[in-house]
Amino acid sequence: MNTNRLSANVEKALSDQMNKEIHASHIFLSYGIWADDKGYQGIANFLYRHAQEERNHSIKFMEYILNRGGKPKVGVIPAPPADPKTLTDCFKGVFKHEVDNTTAIYKIVDLSMAEKDWATWNFMQWFVQEQIEEETLAHNLIDKLKIAGGDRATDESLFTLDKTLQEAPNDVPLAQEATGNNP
Ligand code: FEO
Predict the structure, then answer these.
(1) Which one, out of 9, 49, 117, 177, has a CA that is 20 to 30 A from the CA of 141?
(2) Whose CA is closest to atom 1 on ligand 1?
(3) Which domain holds residue 121?
(4) pLDDT of residue 168
């Protein structure tokens, strides 16, 4: 008896998205490392937190596929893009990657609708909502940097921006709080 409640197409689309979320996680991790190296520890932590959220999204896809009787497949994760050149570049990159991800999420919503797979359609609504929040977060970053003076911002205003992001609430533990027992 076939207990897989996902069609082959939907299963593959969800599995690909599981991998895409890890790719997004790696992109934000690499941006975070870039910011950390430049001395922007608050911005780096913000990006590390975001990388962790993307990983959580990947696990959400993994669990859903398994719960529906499918088997997710971990694939090759492409390397993250080159380091940003400036903070504006970095924040625009964050926004662009969120929009790319939204496009991929909408494709799965379309597919689930075409196949009348209402369970998957319903599952995907969480991600539709999440992407609204993440895109808002990303363009707020661009706005904050613009107010600080963009690429011509003074060291003092960048210091304040960095500090603000360091103090932003955590949905996930900060990198600095990780320990061997609580990685
Ligand atoms: Fe998992 Fe930023 O979307």
Answers:
(1) 177
(2) 54
(3) 8-175
(4) 72
11 lines ligand 1 (CB under 6 A): no
Q: How many structural domains compose the chain? A: 1
Residue 164 alpha carbon to ligand 1 centre in Å = 22
What's the whole-model pTM score?
0.89
Rounded CA gap, 72 and 11, in Å? 7
Report the chain's terminal Cα–Cα distance, integer Å.
40
Q: Which one-letter amino acid corresponds to residue 120?
A: T
Q: What is the pLDDT of residues 25-58, one digit of tens each?
A: 999 999 999 999 999 999 999 999 999 999 999 9
User: Does 47 contact ligand 1 (Cβ within 6 A)?
Assistant: no
Residues of the chain with pLDDT under 70: 169-183
Ligand 1 mean position to 53 CA, how many Å?
7
- In single-letter form, the type of residue at position 81 comes to P
Ligand 1 pocket residue status of 134, Cβ below 6 Å = yes
Is the distance from CB of 68 to CB of 7 less than 8 angstroms?
no
